[in-house]
Protein 1
Amino acid sequence: MSDRRPRPAWRRPRPEPPEADAPDAPEERSSVVRASVYRDGRRVASPATLAETFRRLREHPDGMAWIGLQRPTEEELHSLAAEFDLHELAVEDALEAHQRPKLERYGDTLFVVLRAARYLDDQEEVDFGELHVFVGPDFLITVRHGAAPDLSTVRRRMEQDPELLALGPEAVLYAILDAVVDGYAPVVAGVQNDIDEIETEVFGGDPAVSRRIYELSREMVEFQRATRPLVGMLHSLTAGFAKYGTDEELQRYLRDVADHVTHTSERVDGFRQALADILTVNATLVTQQQNAEMRALAEAGFEQNEEIKKISSWAAILFAPTLVGTIYGMNFDNMPELHWAGGYPFAVLLMAVVCTSLYLAFKKKDWL
């Protein structure tokens, strides 16, 4: 006799729909990553198609089907909706990516949208994925959009713990939640390292750091959108412990996940504030650098003007004797003072007076 706890009344087997496993059904495609049927926490079948999965689950009315899909087609989701009575609004959301994290209940089926994240070391950026989960009385369906999260690890972990897997689809949901939240830890570490590098670049005067700050700030906005709603979702699940008779072990499991996601959400909030502060400091440093460059340019211009003044002053001083000498060097026969005995001393004296007057005038204006 099995020691598995009795199945709740709301998890009774579903009647077999007619023609559900027709061989010419059009839903079989490679988007089915993996499908398994479990009974008492142990895998009893690994069907290759959705139709075979439906058939094997009906052979084990007290079993559970775990179906993993990667970007399924509309026909596949409609096939699942017909088999498991999924709500059309939830199916419509699962077809489209870019949904916000949320938790909605449609009768006996729970629909959960999660945003997973992973840190790409080579690109030094955060990559976000989207996961839609349908949780019913005897089935769990995951619809993945993106590379994250890696649910194969979750499946292996659950299969290695039959007692936990025997608790049903709720246990698998909590394991998925835990995997998604644990996946945030490397992202947090990678972002913290990026922020440390950015602080060094800011004070090192790297001109490309502004773009990096902006890009990381945008990633933190996305990260915040992924983690903040998850806090409320887990609180909602916690509030439903008594109403839905959640197993005590799963309650402890969920509270631990809630603690982790709360901590992660607080770290993300701190990252956004830190990046805002760094951006302000960087703008201040850039402004200071620009002011210093403008000041240096102004000083260089001032020095250049002073040199031009000196050159212009000496050019004017030297031009005066040149003008006098040019006039008296024309050698016209009828030119006055040409044969005057005092003409030469007068010309030299005139040159000296004009040059001295110009020198004193420029000196008074501080051009020399």
Protein 2
Amino acid sequence: MTVDQVGSPAELAGLLDRNGYLCDEGLATACFLALRMGRPLFLEGEAGVGKTELAKTLARGLGAPLIRLQCYEGLDASQALYDWDFPRQLLHLRAAEAAGVSDVSRLEGELYDRRFLLARPLLQALETSPSVLLVDELDRADDEFEAFLLEVLSDFTITVPELGTIRAERPPVVVVTSNRTREVHDALKRRCLYHWLEHPSFEREVAIIRLRLPDAAERLAGQVARAAQRMREADLLKPPGVAETLDWTEALVALGVRDLDPGTAAVTLGAVLKYREDQQRVLGGDGAAGLEALLNGG
């Protein structure tokens, strides 16, 4: 299915569902409007709630390649946009010298040919149609890069001084994510459609587990989802997201578990809680009693 063939938020939700992603009406509507209006979709929410997975599933559903730009501190334009392949340029220069080429202007023109340009994610996305561009964890990048990204997303063009302006034949579908470790500037948010991803309800989380891990028993899916919901209500350093819920369920299925008990929960807790302090808080003074309360609501 192409972008133009998606006729409504309900159709988009169905497309995502068929590809393993359950979304609510609000997210489906925001995503549909981003596709229809040609605007980037800015997703914020805690880690593990499904922001990155939405972009991956959208790419699968639309039959478009996913081009991912993982942001980090110190990321600059050359790493995100393009760079020149200096080793190949040098080899070309040496080969030309060996062949006795004396036309300096011609040689300089050949050195800055498109074949020596290394396309990084942003340029790849503009040159690939259709495509889904995922700018992941923008909040980890510096303010300077954020300003540069705003310029690129404004008109989907990139100017390479040696070659000229490269314009997208059709703008890529853009998904920008943030875990909100810092505030992203209003200028970039104004360019996007915005949606905050909450942790799913108990019923939706059970449905997600059953969809992604059909080998998990229905009772086990409910127990894991209920425990994850209660962990999020506790004062933890890193409450589990849906990703951790799925990891925990997958680990339990691998062990052949169909009914979660405190003992099994204790030895598999590292699949869902990744901080020692969080595990200790959940276990409490008496590990068995703490997990019994977590699983049974005591």
